[in-house]
Amino acid sequence: MNFAQNRKLWEQRVEDFKSSQLTQEIWCQQNDLKVTALRYWLKKIREESISQNEPWVKLEPAFQKTDSTAVLTKASLTIHIGSYRVEVADGFCHHTLKDLVSTLSKLC
Fold it and tell me: Is the alpha carbon torsion for 10, 16, 19, 21 positive or negative?
């Protein structure tokens, strides 16, 4: 069995497990599988799903031109999400920023 076939098989097994409403241990006993294998594939599929559903956002530090040099401003960061632009100042609330980025990502 090649990797693609094995992956497809485990994707189906993970779906079967989730719909069974059994504990990992009982489901694996009933299906003659190791719990460690099920946990590996649960984690792998969940992590890949998360990375595919969360789009990358562009982060740009804000620069301020002074004469012939560019100076990084102390507390400014610009985040581009789709057509939106958000400037983040020093002392921002991390929870608010996380919620904002999540909301804007869904809109784009």
Answer: negative
> What does the DSSP 8-state code read for residue 80?
E
Longest pairwise C-alpha distance within the chain:
73
Domain parsing of the chain, residue ranges: 3-53, 58-107
Please, is 81 exposed, middle or buried when counting C-beta atoms within 10 Å of its C-beta (0-12, 13-18, 19+)?
A: buried
Q: For the segment 60-101, what is each residue's pLDDT rounded down to a tens digit? A: 655 555 555 545 555 567 777 777 777 777 777 778 878 887
pTM attached to this predicted model: 0.49
- Angle (CA) 84-86-90 rounded to 5° is 175
Q: How far is CA 17 from CA 5, 11, 13, 82, 87, in A?
A: 18, 10, 6, 37, 44
